[in-house]
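The protein record minuted underneath.
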Amino acid sequence: MLPSSCDTFVALPPSSEGQRVIFGKNSDRPCDEVQEVVYFAARDHATGEKVECTYIQIEQVAHTYAVVLSKPAWMWGAEMGANEHQVCIGNEAVWGRESADGDEALLGMDLVRLGLERADTAENAVDVIAGLLEKYGQGGPCMEDQCGFTYHNSFLISDRKEAWLLETSGRHWAAERVEGGHRNISNQYGITTKIDKEHPEMREYARSKGWWDGKSEFNFATVYSFLTTARIESAGTRYCEGKSLLEKRNGHITAEAMMDILRDKESGINMEGMFLTTGSMVSVVPTDPALPGVHYFTATPGPERSVFKPFVFVENAHELKETTSPSFGPDDPVKKKPRFQSKPDRKHPLFVKHELIAAIIESYKDRGEKITQGLRQLEKETMTEMEKILEEGVRQPDLLVNLFNGSVQKELSVYSKA
């Protein structure tokens, strides 16, 4: 399958406004897939404990950080998310010279979640993901289906001070530090000659395969990709469109600007069809460590008809019940072999209500516009409230323990009035 999904963005000062890091991603997945938004508190773990990822078990660490995740409901891992240290990660499917048709191992989405649970900085997340990749490998179906859709992964990772681009091919990888400006990734390799970290055998492996002569300047994208860097930069790709949308707002990139980019249909970034935008995320992370980050998630498909709802890490944050899908435990068809013999209904409560409203918006123009205006007004009011927290900090943490759930209830209220 040709590259066809997902875009991830980050803007750092001076591209962003107000000494903030702005992170955003559209998760473009099969049109019948449900994406949930879930919260897991920080936890200590016993020695020898294992963690059950999507397909394999791996060793657990002594402590995992609190995380908020947007994830396909059938997977253990996540498409995107953030942790209590304001590390944000999103991944992309990439295809290159190395076959992605390996045995079941860690999915790229598992690596996103593991990176968030185990790393307190963006650079540490690079090291965590790279170490897990080298130890366990990546592989297995990336759709809840028997079609065998597989890919390797690239990751855009940010924290309060910088971002990292991590790109993988099998167990090999390269990483580039981004210390300012903006960066976006789509479904092609983008690291060229600036490589700040790498797998120790990455170059020799490429030379042994005949992909690199061992003498010319090493260009990761050219060596490991099917496509040359010229093709990656070619007009018409979502990567190029995304880069252009960021450049148009350079110096003035805000959360609102990032949401506009994620809602852009003309560029293809807001995707429709068999693959569509099933979930979206925008994070605002001040460079000042005394200030909290605010992480917005839709938990529903189609950002243009969804509400970005805020989450702030505070002690005793509540479980996100309205955006958590049903659990089927060991009876889940994903856990049984052969896998994917059936598909259970994974729709969470917000998804069910949103599906009905989305149908109305699509079918009745005037009524749909009125509903959309109400959703946008709710979003605008919520973001105004969050601006106070971003500027002044969290003064009453107890008022934020149910922040995301409260925003969901307000969204449902707009639906009811419609």
In short: The radius of gyration is 20 Å.
